[in-house]
Specification:
Elements (H helix, E strand, L loop, with lengths): L2 H17 L9 E5 L4 E4 L15 E4 L4 E3 L8 H10 L5 E5 L2 H9 L9 H6 L3 E4 L22 E4 L3 E6 L2 H23 L8 H11 L3
Parallel strand pairs: 6-7
Antiparallel strand pairs: 1-2, 1-5, 2-3, 3-4, 5-8, 7-8
Length: 210
């Protein structure tokens, strides 16, 4: 897919993150794999809801800027860890959705066995330790959380979702936040009733066919 089309995709979903309250101000960052050697990523210091094609940066998989007039996101190391470890992934979405980020800041895992749609579309949602923003070497810790899974609560930071394209990565972000809201409300009603273990197993096997 051309850089022009991928640029339009980053701009579209950056705008949706902002419009839907999943980021505020200068929050968040998005990236797309252009080919086996390079990625397109959002810049540092600009609101992701109002980007233009000229604002985006092309970098190689070591983080070296190939083109673009601005600096890449300060969290490019997070994205690079994904692309270096997951050849099946072509898009990353990082945001600070309020409910899911509250779980991350509290060090609480989201329940993975209450909604069949979450098992089928998102899968396991990992809870990662806090990884310092802007410290590239520390993001190596992310590898163990994204080895097989496509959604991570980042301790005291936010959420990272992965996809085979940007729509999939973005809609997984929406799904994680939707689950966090439901979990929050369910607990206020006295607790959540999990799906039967046999049903969870069936759904996981069904997911493997997707």
């Amino acid at each position: 897919m051309s850089k022009k089309i991928q640029s339009a995709s980053l701009i579209k979903y950056g705008s949706l993150l902002y419009q839907n309250g999943l980021i505020e101000g200068l929050d968040g960052n998005l990236s797309i794999r252009l080919d086996k050697k390079s990625i397109l990523i959002t810049p540092s210091g600009l609101p992701k809801g109002f980007l233009k094609p000229k604002d985006l940066i092309v970098a190689d998989l070591s983080g070296r800027k190939i083109s673009g007039s601005r600096n890449a996101s300060s969290e490019i190391a997070m994205h690079l860890q994904v692309y270096q470890n997951r050849p099946d992934i072509w898009a990353c979405c990082h945001a600070h959705p309020p409910f899911a980020t509250a779980f991350a800041a509290a060090g609480k895992k989201l329940p993975e066995n209450i909604l069949p749609e979450m098992i089928l579309f998102v899968g396991n949602i990992r809870l990662a330790e806090y990884i310092p923003t802007g410290v590239a070497s520390q993001w190596k810790k992310l590898a163990k959380y994204i080895n097989k899974d496509n959604a991570v609560l980042l301790g005291n930071h936010g959420v990272l979702t992965l996809g085979r394209d940007m729509p999939e990565a973005y809609f997984r972000m929406e799904a994680v936040e939707h689950l966090a809201r439901i979990a929050w409300l369910g607990k206020s009603l006295g607790g959540l009733k999990p799906l039967d273990k046999k049903e969870v197993t069936r759904l996981k096997k069904l997911k493997e066919k997707f």
